[in-house]
């Protein structure tokens, strides 16, 4: 996304890519639009889609090919609309998170960055082991 343009509609769902990346630790592939978890942990992701209501818009936050949460705007009049959603996810190393544009829908963006995708690590997961007395210890 980025600059003034419309994306879609397509005959199949597509993974959105984003031209404007404001901060990246290297886990987000700008060319594919896919975030790959570098460490096991708890992450928060959110996304926003903007469209003109003359056409439908549908987006999903995907994890390893599974739809987690979605937003939709349906054709109704001629005005601009924005929808947003987010989710906290437990990820393993190598899990992939991305935004999928529904088949037959479209999304709009411009220099104001109206359609976005962001995420960050809240905290890494730690392994829990038991000591010789059965008490949990973190390592």
How are the elements arranged and paired?
Blueprint: E1 5-7, E2 14-15, E3 28-29, E4 34-36, E5 41-52, E6 57-63, E7 66-73, E8 80-91, E9 96-101, E10 107-109, E11 116-124, E12 128-130, E13 136-138
Antiparallel strand pairs: 1-10, 2-9, 3-4, 4-9, 5-8, 5-11, 6-7, 6-9, 12-13
Summarize the structure.
The chain is built from no helices and 13 strands. By secondary structure, it is an all-beta fold.
Textual characterization of the structure:
The chain has 139 residues and is an all-beta fold. Helix content is 0%, strand content 53%. The chain has no helices and 13 strands. The strands form four sheets. Strands 2, 3, 4, 6, 7 and 9 form a six-stranded antiparallel beta sheet that branches. The mean pLDDT is 90.
List keywords for this structure.
elongated; 6-stranded antiparallel beta sheet; 139 residues; mainly beta; 3-stranded antiparallel beta sheet
Largest sheet: 6 strands, antiparallel
Distance between the termini: 41 Å
Determine Rg (CA atoms, Å): 18 Å
What integer is the average pLDDT?
90
> How does the overall form come out from the CA principal axes?
elongated
Q: What is the number of strand segments?
A: 13
Q: Which structural class best describes the helix and strand composition?
A: mainly beta
Query: What's the tally of helices?
Result: 0
Order of helices and strands: EEEEEEEEEEEEE
Low-confidence stretches: none
Helix content: under 10%
β-sheet strand percentage: over 45%
